[in-house]
């Protein structure tokens, strides 16, 4: 088979470049005719493989990538190819090796809306869309289930286009023979004595890999323990700003930057702990390399290979959202823990699994299968594209339950029990095959609503997209929320944009506002009731903390937008048989960090909706302590202004609602207080 392999830049210390070379050699050994296209090649070249270097004389990365793609496309058109395999996202690829994280999934919450107007954003978004759009047919060799879900969240890419590859471990990078001797030699080379604790940080791209977090954690150790530690940083990047940070934290004498190295397996044997608190990492091959070397690992759950650390019981994985104090605490624990030897043994045993080393063979198998299918379908059939401008996702069980066509217009017209019917938005409950769903349809907010929001420096809510992204975001945080069965949206005119979202009904549930209504008449008194109330407060504080720490805020954060799911006897509730779900996410915002004003808005909404429930000062203090994850004394000393704003805003909301209720009584004698009906 005649195969073209495309990679922007090859350099030997990159995990992507190593994967590229291994797949290349595997394909060559099977006798395929191979041609490589790169813009740069650093290091030795493989024998017998023609490599075409296409220089890109541009200053910015995105301009270099665009120039490289134009040159590659010109060369590709000169010959016939069985398959064109890309290792970076770009148009015209038949197969994409998915080692990168989702760009738009990272850029949208991280940067302001103005960033989307830049040439850089436009380039990376269009190149990514050229691979993952539902209008394309590119086969995707994915390395991470987690990142696959992010791509599907933003692009709706069909499941059948993804093929999950095994881990990217290389047999040649396993622990060398006689590891004790190698460990002693490497520690002597690094100048680390036997009584010192050697932390390793390995990876090119210090910012993404979280080197700043690692330095902060080291500086937070107790003085005596910190002085025993050395941190060695291995990777190709500019260390200047991190050297300044280390000096500022007064740990500059304990940090050494060694640059890129080829003796990673030997270096790992010298270490006592791998520190990898990454901000984002599609895979993280170094985690598995450390694991097989018997080196305990401390990492974050954003790494695609982090679940292997849990499965092997070979270290600690910090859950999202990231909290620096949790990293500080775990680093101290792992340095002093007697479990280090157990983690080391577990990692080496886990690394003996041969399936961890089969990535190149599996990748080439899939490439060959794709080529054979294309030949059998020659002349190639046209890919059936979705209606232009429409994104559509329908879960398989809902497709089967509907038993009719389920295109976008059909979904928008489904009827059921009406729960809400407001201008531009409608919610109905439908039951199919004994299972209930909620369908929310949006038919456009109009230019007046858009301009009103913009005048208040707020982004308008244009449809179901916020809820779609909000549900995925909360699921990744481990927060109970809705399960999506269907979603669709049009593009074009924002004032008339139509969309829908279908979610499963949360069975055996009650709104938290309705559940707590009884507390107004009869506050919790028995030990069981008080224990359950404290669990609810604890859970509300946890959800609020995790959501805000992750950069998200709800905007309608009231008790009526929590559902309490109860199992067993509803009169004998316990935390063990109860779950708390966050619902109504259609106004949720997701950023890199949650601004204080939006955190105040959310927490004051909770406080306002609980003012008549007879909560004690101790209950409020309990919420504050869990929400901030710090001692109450410290909260009262350092965060008075934040909590005063929360209380003031909640009081204002409460007084305004009282005035509205009094006005309704005057204008409509006998009118009952209006309460919002929660919709899942």
Report on the architecture of this protein.
This protein is an alpha/beta fold and 680 residues long. The protein folds into 4 domains: 2-164, 3-Layer(aba) Sandwich (Rossmann fold); 171-355, Glycogen Phosphorylase B (Rossmann fold), CATH 3.40.50; 390-505, Phosphorylase Kinase, domain 1 (2-Layer Sandwich), CATH 3.30.200; 507-680, Transferase(Phosphotransferase), domain 1 (Orthogonal Bundle), CATH 1.10.510. 44% of the residues lie in helices and 18% in strands. It is built from 26 helices and 24 strands. Helix 22 (527-549) packs parallel to helix 24. The longest helix is centred in the last third of the chain and has 28 residues, at 640-667. The radius of gyration is 28 Å and the shape is globular. The protein starts with a strand and ends in a 13-residue tail after the last helix. Mean pLDDT is 90; it is low at 378-385.
What radius of gyration results from the CA coordinates? Answer: 28 Å
| Counted beta strands | 24
Tell me the helix content. 40-55%
What CATH architecture label of the largest domain applies? 3-Layer(aba) Sandwich
How much β-strand is present in the residues?
15-25%
- CATH topology title of the largest domain: Rossmann fold
The gross shape turns out to be: globular
In CATH, the homologous superfamily of the largest domain goes by the name Glycogen Phosphorylase B
Strand order of the largest sheet: 3-2-1-4-5-6-7
């Amino acid at each position: 088979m005649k195969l073209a392999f495309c990679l922007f830049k090859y350099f030997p210390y990159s995990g992507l470049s190593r994967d590229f070379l291994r797949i290349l050699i595997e394909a060559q050994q099977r006798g395929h005719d191979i041609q490589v296209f790169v813009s740069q090649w650093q290091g030795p070249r493989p024998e017998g493989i023609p490599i075409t270097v296409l220089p890109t004389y541009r200053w910015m990365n995105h301009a270099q990538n665009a120039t490289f793609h134009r040159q590659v496309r010109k060369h590709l058109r000169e010959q016939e190819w069985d398959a064109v395999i890309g290792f970076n996202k770009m148009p015209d690829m038949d197969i994409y090796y998915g080692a990168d994280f989702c760009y738009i999934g990272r850029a949208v919450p991280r940067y302001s809306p103005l960033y989307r107007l830049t040439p850089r954003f436009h380039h990376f978004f269009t190149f990514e869309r050229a691979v993952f759009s539902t209008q394309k047919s590119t086969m995707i060799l994915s390395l991470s289930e987690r990142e696959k879900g992010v791509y599907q969240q933003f692009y709706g890419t069909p499941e059948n286009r993804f093929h999950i590859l095994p881990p990217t471990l290389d047999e040649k990078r396993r622990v060398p023979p006689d590891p004790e001797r190698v460990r002693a030699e490497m520690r002597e080379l690094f100048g680390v004595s036997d009584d010192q604790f050697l932390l390793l940080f390995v990876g090119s791209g210090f910012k993404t890999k979280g080197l700043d977090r690692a330095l902060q954690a080291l500086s937070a150790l107790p003085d005596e323990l910190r002085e025993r530690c050395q941190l060695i940083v291995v990777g190709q990047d500019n260390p200047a700003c991190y050297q300044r940070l280390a000096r500022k934290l007064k740990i500059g004498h304990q940090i050494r930057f060694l640059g890129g190295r080829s003796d990673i397996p030997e270096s790992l044997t010298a270490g006592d702990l791998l520190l990898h608190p990454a901000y984002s990492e599609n895979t993280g091959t170094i985690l598995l390399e450390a694991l097989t070397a018997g080196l305990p690992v401390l990492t974050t759950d954003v790494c695609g290979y982090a679940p292997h650390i849990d499965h092997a019981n070979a270290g600690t994985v910090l859950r999202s959202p990231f909290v620096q104090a949790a990293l500080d605490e775990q680093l101290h624990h792992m340095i002093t823990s007697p479990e280090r030897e157990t983690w080391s043994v577990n990692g080496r045993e886990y690394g003996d699994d041969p399936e961890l080393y089969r990535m190149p063979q599996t990748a080439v198998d899939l490439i060959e299968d794709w080529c054979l299918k294309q030949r059998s379908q020659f002349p190639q059939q046209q890919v059936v594209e979705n209606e232009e401008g429409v994104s559509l996702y329908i879960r398989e069980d809902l497709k089967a339950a509907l038993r009719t066509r389920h295109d976008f217009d059909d979904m928008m017209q489904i009827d059921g029990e009406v729960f809400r019917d407001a201008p531009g938005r409608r919610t109905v409950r439908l039951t199919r095959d004994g299972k209930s769903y909620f369908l929310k349809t949006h038919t456009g907010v109009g230019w007046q609503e858009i301009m009103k929001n913009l005048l208040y420096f707020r982004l308008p809510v244009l449809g179901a997209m916020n809820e779609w992204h909000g549900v995925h975001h909360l699921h990744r945080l481990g927060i109970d929320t809705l399960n999506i069965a269907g979603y669709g949206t049009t593009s074009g005119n924002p004032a008339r944009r139509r969309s829908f979202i279908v979610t499963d009904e949360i069975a055996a549930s009650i709104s938290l506002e309705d559940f707590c209504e009884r507390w107004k008449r009869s506050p919790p008194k028995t030990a069981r009731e008080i224990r359950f109330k404290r669990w609810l407060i604890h859970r509300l504080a946890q959800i609020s903390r995790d959501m805000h720490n992750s950069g998200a805020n709800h905007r309608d954060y009231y008790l009526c937008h929590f559902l309490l799911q109860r199992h067993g006897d509803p009169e004998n509730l316990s935390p063990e048989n109860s779950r708390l779900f966050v619902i109504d996410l259609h106004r949720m915002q997701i950023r890199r960090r949650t601004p204080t004003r939006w955190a105040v808005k959310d927490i004051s909404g909770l406080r306002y909706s609980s003012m008549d429930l007879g909560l004690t000062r101790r209950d409020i203090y309990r919420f504050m302590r869990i929400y901030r994850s710090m001692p109450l004394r410290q909260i009262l000393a350092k965060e008075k202004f934040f909590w005063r704003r929360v209380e003031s805003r909640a009081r204002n909301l409460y007084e305004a609602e009282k005035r509205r209720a009094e006005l309704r009584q005057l204008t409509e004698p006998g009118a009952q207080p209006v309460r919002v009906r929660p919709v899942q």
